[in-house]
Amino acid sequence: MTFGTPSVYPDFTTIQPQYTNYGNLSHTHIFSPNLLNEMAFGATRAWGEAPLAHGEIPLLNVPGIAAYGTGFSDATFIQNNFEWRDMMSYNRGSHNFKFGFRYAKDDAWKGGAKFANVFTRPQFSFNNLFDFALDDPFQESNIGFNPKTGENKGVDFRPFFPSLGIFFNDDWKARPNLTITLGLRWEAFYAPGDYDNFFTGMVFQGGNTFQERIANATSVNKPPLDGTDFNNFAPRIGIAWDPTREGKMSIRAGVGVFYDRFAGQFFHDAQTFAPVFGLATARKDTPPVVPVYGLSKTTQSPWQFPVIPNLRVGLDPKGGLLGVPSELSNADPNMRTQYSINWSLAIQYAIARDYVVETAYIGSVGRKLYQEYDVNRFNGDLLDGRLDRLNTSFGVIGYAQANGNSSYHGATVSVKKRFTQGLDFQAGYTVGKAIDQASSFGRGLNIFDPLRLFLNRGRADFDVRHKIASSIVYEIPRPKFLGAGLGKVFDGWQLGAVTILQSGPPFTVVCNQPFIAARDASGRIVGNNGCDFNADGRSGDPLNAASFGNSKTGLERSDYMFPNRIFQASDFPKPALGQLGNLGRNTFLSPGYANTDFILSKKTKILWFLGKEGANLHFRAEFFNLFNRVNLDRPVGDTNSPDFGRSTRAFGARNVQFGLKLEF
């Protein structure tokens, strides 16, 4: 299988293979009729490769056209994961006890991220098509540099991530119509490490405020965390009660705490940073370190791209590169483990022999959620015409923290018919609302202001307010008047359908253009012809709300499609110089989604030359998006894009496939 996405430019498309091998060894031992032990050991080896085509051409990002060239490439990824788990089950009276443990290690032993060559090719970003025509980029990034040798190359990285979990659970049949479940789980996600001592971490050198600590921080060769968070106790309780004592009604409720490990990518497990390895970025507003555009003089590795000025061998006292700000991705050394509290209440009732109706309320909150975003910035930095940053030794400092929050509240109503008389049917309606500050564990999140996280609080990217889903399976009965011959033709047919109708997810209106200073006759900055409205060196800022507010209703699907658009960039006023706009995150809605998948199948008994029972021939016709409805993706929310306010992508059109399967 492959994991690469084809390029819109065929010459840059490569086959990117991925292979995964699994192994599992298990043992079950029965000590007595009421005591059982289950042990298992498993291992997984994942291997992937991203070849490179036309590496002499760097990756070019230009607003309004698809990215040209290849970014991440010339890399191999190998990961070996190990797991050992054991569970003891013990039944005593009305209690069913279970207790055990799980130890796992995501390990790069004899593998890891072999990404050294990824950082030998620069990437360029242009403000517009005119600058692209003039070979005048605003930013050059992905400049890898060994500060000790001067070599333009990264390092292969081999991190590991161990974890341990211990649990106890009791299913107690308190009464014939009442079951109570009690549980407790303890988790330890140990501090990550690596076999070659390449990890780097941030050390604060004093300061009364967070910004002062960032300004004085140094980057050193150390593990990313100073220790492991062992205070991860997760209790759970649940009940199931039938007040009728007749099996017609069930009331279920539960609440539990659930801890979640950090993903390896959260610690940038594919590479390391200064002082071990330098990753530089040059921008027009960081002179004398400015972009130098050009292609490689060679058509194969080692590449020979133009070298940016002021790049020198050595490190400054804070662990940064000499003369060139180095990008960092470090973590809060005292970071805690993220967790969620989930609860639910559901009532089921059998209204007839084969029908069950259910209504439920579901709630959840997330606390200490993992987030990483640039903290080396301050409002108004660019108002003097230069990007200085808080800590002048570094460029972007992606600082990973456990400081996010989220919440979800939803309700469902459904009806189900179990499979009888050739018919199975179920339908349900869900209404809910999800709120967060960022909708992924995230590296490089677009946090508007590091000191005011509440500005990012809004509807989650995946928030779907209303959803109706239904499914049906029906066995078509054979007409009774048909004889054996025709009966075989009309016998064994079955049809099925799945339909989903839902409102669209939200999207945010921002501007991804950098700060472009407007000056008066004396050269003083008096305005901003671009974006990055708070002038902190990061684009993607919100604008002010339009005259119609921060939402828009009454839209048809055609309003989102070319040549139409749901709004113009001019609808959103730019905020005052050095200020963020008042438009919130995820306030506008995407088009809704409606889809039906249909299946028609037939099972036919046929003669077979082996055995006496014969064989079965299965025919299957599948119609995905049966009605060929155009389901539009999110509209473009970047006011700097020529496609702002319209959807440029759609989900799959109708797809029909047929299949035959022989069982014998």
What do you see in this structure?
It is built from three helices and 34 strands. It has 664 residues and is mainly β. The chain has a domain of 406 residues: Maltoporin, Chain A (Beta Barrel). The strands form seven sheets. It has a 20-stranded mixed beta sheet that branches. The chain has a four-stranded mixed beta sheet with strand order 3-6-7-15, with no helix packed on it. Strand 32 and strand 33 form a beta hairpin.
Summarize the structure.
With 664 residues, this protein is mainly β. The protein has 3 helices and 34 strands.
Q: How does the major sheet shape up?
A: 20 strands, mixed
Average pLDDT taken over every residue:
91
Q: Any idea what the shape is?
A: globular
Unreliable sequence segments: none
Strand content: over 45%
Q: Considering DSSP H and I runs of 4 or more, what fraction of the residues is helical? A: under 10%
**What is the tally of beta strands?**
34
- Return the CATH class of the domain at 10-415: Mainly Beta
Compute the CA-based radius of gyration: 30 Å
Named at the architecture level, the CATH assignment of the domain at 10-415 is Beta Barrel
Distance between the termini: 29 Å
**Global structural class:** mainly beta
